[in-house]
Amino acid sequence: MLHSIITHGSIKADISYETDRMEFIGHGNTVANPKAMDHLGPLSGKQGSVLDPIVSIRCKIVLEASENIIIDLITGVSDTREGCEKLIRKYQDKHHKNRIFELAWTHSQVILRQINATNADEQLFGRLASSIIFTNPSFRTAPSIIIKNHKKQSDLWGYSVSGDLPIVLVQIADQSNISLIKQLIQAHAYWCLKGLAADLIIWNEENGGYRQDLHNQIQALIPNELLGRPGGIFVRAADHISDEDRILFQTVARVHISDANGTLTDHVNRKAYSKSAIPYLSPTTGNDCPIEIIDT
Fold first, then answer.
1. Residue 244: predicted pLDDT
2. To 10 degrees, what angle do helices 264-271 and 178-193 make?
């Protein structure tokens, strides 16, 4: 892994770094109040446990009146140390970095057109993705339901769900909320294109005479190649699932959403900023940082 800072302008102090998590956080502290933020001196430059590192760089800059400075933060990975060093040298070139941002933006627009989504959708899907990869209690089912579960992963197999991939569970009971399903199907396509595999499970909870109509609407939104396959989308009638299995599905789901609680935006705005959630997929539009380097 590589992590570097490049400044274009005057620097008033040496650059220092820290990869020792315990040194950075300090005894008795947390990531909310790390020891490193209690003093303004250089970081120690120590190498701690490489299995549990921190990546941090400190550079003190003093701006005079009307003075400008550009700061580039670069994070990346390579198979070898030599590969990392090559990338660091490569991205010293300001013009090359600008080109990468242009390519990342173009790549992002192609993806959005492919799944018929907007820039706002992309930000929403990226924020939700963090709770799929890093457990966020705010998006999981209530602890009172989880504690009732007495089943195991193999009990999912009867529903053609392996349980090997993260599960996103959505419940819909009202046809008028079909837009929630549309957005989650788009989100699933976005995650797939970004390399994030997950099973999207849709429970049809319509109790009236329109259950089949709702089922048909949902099925029509899903590409055939994704129906009922690993990393794909599964549509199930809720009344065909036993109470014990309902508890199991709700327990294992990383993200549990119900149309009774508003739109996808409502869910994300209420829950995405839980302290336990870690941002993962950042948008690649406008002036935001690209989530990937497109190497030419």
1. 95
2. 60
Residues 6+ apart with CB under 8 A from 244: 150, 151
Coil/strand/helix, residue 111: helix
For the stretch 94-114, pLDDT in tens is 788 888 888 988 988 888 888
Mean pLDDT across 178-205: 93
Record the tokens describing residue 171, joined without a space. 């419940």
> What crossing angle do the helices spanning 119-133 and 94-115 adopt, rounded to 10°?
90
Segment 21-26 long-range contacts (CB within 8 Å, at least 24 positions apart): 21/48, 21/49, 21/52, 21/53, 21/54, 22/48, 22/49, 23/48, 24/54, 24/56, 25/54
| CB neighbours of residue 28 within 10 Å | 7
Q: Is the pLDDT of residue 289 over 80?
A: no
- Give which of 117, 206, 110, 197 is closest to 162, Cα–Cα: 197
Domain range summary for the chain, segments of one domain joined by +? 2-92, 119-271
> Of 241, 239, 235, nearest to 221 (Cα)?
235
- Per-residue CA distances from 220 to 55, 88, 181, 258 (Å): 46, 47, 11, 20
CATH of domain 119-271: 3.40.50
What's the token pair of residue 281?
């997929």
